Amino acid sequence: MRAALPLAAILLWQFPGPLRAELTLRSPVGPLELDQAGVVLELSSHFSGIADAAAFVRATTSFGLLHMELLESSAPATTANFLNYVRAGAYTNSVIHRLIPGFVWQTGGYQVANNTLFQSPTDPPVVNEFGVSNTRGTVAMAKLGGDPDSATSQWFVNLGDNRANLDNQNGGFTVFAKVWDNDLPTVDQIASIPTYDVTNLGQDWPLQDLQPGQQQVTFDNLVYVFGIEEGPLFALNPRTDLFSASLDNGRLSIFPTGEHGLSTTLTLYGFDSTGGLVRDDFVVTAVPEPSAMLLLVGALGFMWRGACPRRALD
């Protein structure tokens, strides 16, 4: 067998439901030796703390990652509406177009594509589902004044405790997610960007790297949510010619796709709702199927042994 290759395939596993227990590694996944049939593993056999799992999304911003726990039980229609936009790519190169320090920053209304800034297309409004208070780090839907059921694609992050204001006007603003505590520094870094009034667009736009005397805003000056991915999330090392791996509903599937006798190290990351991280590194090796010749020899050997008369023991 050839030596293991220095290859790391990374799977980012996020759980399907609110995680009330810390995630712990109960038993390592590997090492594994796989033929072409591959393997499907129930991760609940290897990790504890999965039973009360939570749904997550991961937003990539100009200043880093934001992991957000979705509050499906308290705002099911709003969460479904948000995920519809995520799946449609409505938050790809989305611009953070409003920032009021100490209050909120807001996105989901504008996108950039082909060097053009345009308003994001919207679906029909979603019904208001106010229930969770607008405290620091919560994520809520923006809407039109005087119309509680007018939220579409735009959402905002609460930078402070806004209960007194946002819980008590326009039917209350629907909170549907919460940023992980570990990612609040990224929220605050975005909130520290200076804001400007932009001609034909409006007030309170956060703009970065403006030069003295600069009169025209460039795309590089904008602050972005580059995209949002929903769980389960996974990413593989580019060398996918050895193994195919996927995560679905708490199951890890691995199948060899390359040359037999080669090994690689898979790294499985599990996250709990506090941002806690559990890591398991394990080696996977592709082994060949028994050849037809070996099967024939084995069968003949069995037949020959069966045909030999037994010798009586004296």
Low-confidence stretches: 1-21, 232-239, 302-314
Radius of gyration (Å)? 27 Å
CATH architecture of the largest domain: Beta Barrel
Q: Let me know the largest β-sheet.
A: 9 strands, antiparallel
Helix content: 10-25%
List how many beta strands DSSP finds. 22
What string gives the helices and strands in order? EEEEEEEHEEEEEEEHEHEEEEEEEH
Q: Can you tell me the CATH superfamily of the largest domain? A: Cyclophilin-like
Strand content: 25-35%
Number of helices: 4
Mean of the pLDDT scores?
79
What is the name of the CATH class of the largest domain?
Answer: Mainly Beta
Spatial strand arrangement across the major sheet: 8-18-6-7-15-13-14-10-9
Domain module tally: 2
Helix and strand content put the structural class at mainly beta
Give a verbal description of the structure.
The structure is a single chain. This protein is mostly beta strands. It has two domains: 8-53 and 231-286, Immunoglobulin-like, CATH 2.60.40; 56-230, Cyclophilin (Beta Barrel). It contains four helices and 22 strands. The protein has a nine-stranded antiparallel β-sheet. A four-stranded mixed β-sheet has the order 1-21-22-3, with no helix packed on it. Strands 4-20-19 form a three-stranded antiparallel β-sheet, with no helix packed on it. Strand 16 (195-198) and strand 17 form a beta hairpin. The radius of gyration is 27 Å and the shape is globular. It starts with 7 loop residues before the first strand and ends in a 7-residue tail after the last helix. The model is unreliable at 1-21, 232-239 and 302-314 (pLDDT under 50).
